[in-house]
Here is the input.
Amino acid sequence: MYRSILQLIVAALPAVVSAAPKHNCCQVVNSKIPGPIYYPGSTTYNSSIASYYGDSERELSPSCIFRPTTTPEVQDFVHWVTSGRCKNNQFAVRGGGHTFWSGAANIQPGITVDMRIMHSLQLSADKKIASIGGCALWDQIYPQLVPYSPTVMGGSIPGIGVGGFATGGGITFASREHGFITYASASSNPDLWLALKGGSNSFGIITRFDIGTISQGKMSYNLVNYNYTDASLQAHANAFSDFMKPQNFDKSATMGMFLNYYGGGQMSLSDALWYIQPVQKPAVYHPFFDIPSSNVSVSLLDTVDKIVDKFGEAIPAHVNRGFQLTFSFRNADSATYFQLFKIYETAMTKLASVEGIFVEFLVQPHPVTNGTNLFGLQAGKTDDVMVDMTSAYTHKADDALVGQVLGDTVNQQKQLLKESDYLINFLYLNYADISQPVLQSWGESNIEKLRTACKKYDHKGVFQTQVPGGFKIPK
Here is the structure.
C-alpha cells in the first residue's frame, strides 16, 4: 500500500476570554493574519464561490474567505478562530469543492478556509516520496511527475482535490493492487494514522501529504459503448459476475459499468476498462469486448495524466443541482445483477419530467484492502462491489423528487441484496450523501477508535462543533 506522511494542524485551544459577535471574527483574523482574508464582492471571493462543483455549495455566502499560503498561516488561523473573541464561530474547510451536498465545504455565516493555493509538489531525491500541498488537484500533480517516471495514484477525473479525496478513503486506478490510498506515519501517532483514513475533516486541517510513489509507466483505458437492450444487460450481468469471482482476480484491472439515464426514456450502457500495465486490450476484459453491438469509442495506452484527462472529457466541470448515494455488496450471481439493472431502469421513468436530468448508475470493484484502516472490511477480499448512484439536474425545486426517487431505488436494490445475503454494511464516504450513516457503517469498535483519537488530538472538539460540515463522529 501507499505510505504517506502528513502535516496535521489540530487546534490548540487557549482559555476563553470573552466572545465577540460572530461577524467580527473575520476582522479579528484579518488583523492577526493580514492579507489572506477576502470579503463578499471582491474578485477573489466571487471566484472562490463560483469554483464549487455544485450549486448547493455555490449558493452559500460565507462572511469571508481565508486563503492560506503556508502551514504557519493555517496554525495561526486555527489559534485565533478557536480562542477569545472568535471562540464558537464556525468555519468550513474546502479543497477541490466536489461534494454535492450543502455545507460540506462551505458555510453561511462563518469563515470558509479555501486551501487551493497550497498546491505545491516536491519529489524527494530518491524519487520515493512526493510531498504534495494539502489542496493540490490530482490532475495538476500527475503531469508534473511524468518526466520522473514514478507517480502517485489518486483521483481519476479532473478537478478532484488531494485532501478530501485522501481523507475520504481514496479509490484509484491502482486500488485493486494497493487498496485505498493511505497517508500519515504508522510509526508516529498510529492511532491518528488509522483515524485519518476516512476521518475526513474530523481531526484538523491537512496542509501537506508526503505520498509514497509507485513505479507506473503507461496504462490502458478503453471506453466501450453498447446498445441498451435486455440482451446487453444480461451479457453484462454474466461478464461482471465472472470478472469479480476470486479465481478471475487480476490486480492490474479495475473497471466501471455505467448505466446512464438522460431523461425522456433515453438510456445508455458503457464500460470504462482500466489496466495499470501497458496492455491495450487485456485478456481479463475479453468477455466485455465480445458482447455484441459494442463500439470502442476510446482505446488509449498512455501515462496516467493523459488517461485522467481523456476520461474527464465527458464529465462536466460544474453542475447545477446534484445528489449522490452509495452502497456495497459481495459479488452476486448474474440474475441478481440483472435485477439490480431493471430496478434502476424502471425507477428512472419517475424522473422524466425533471429538467436537465442525468442519472449515473455506476457499478465497480471495491479496492482490495490490507486491513490497515477503520472501514471494517475484510483484508485481502477481492470480490466486493461498490455502487455510486449520481444525479445532476437543473432546478432546486426538483431536489425532493430526485432525492426520493434515488433513495427509493437504492433501498429497493439494497433489500434485494439483503434477502440474498449479498449486502455489506460499508459506505464509501466520498460517494455518500450526508443522509447516509457512513461512519456507523464501519462498526461500533471502529467508531470508538475515532472517538478516542478525537479526544486525544482535538480534545475540545473544535472540528466536531466549530466545523459543522462533513461526517461527524457519532457520540
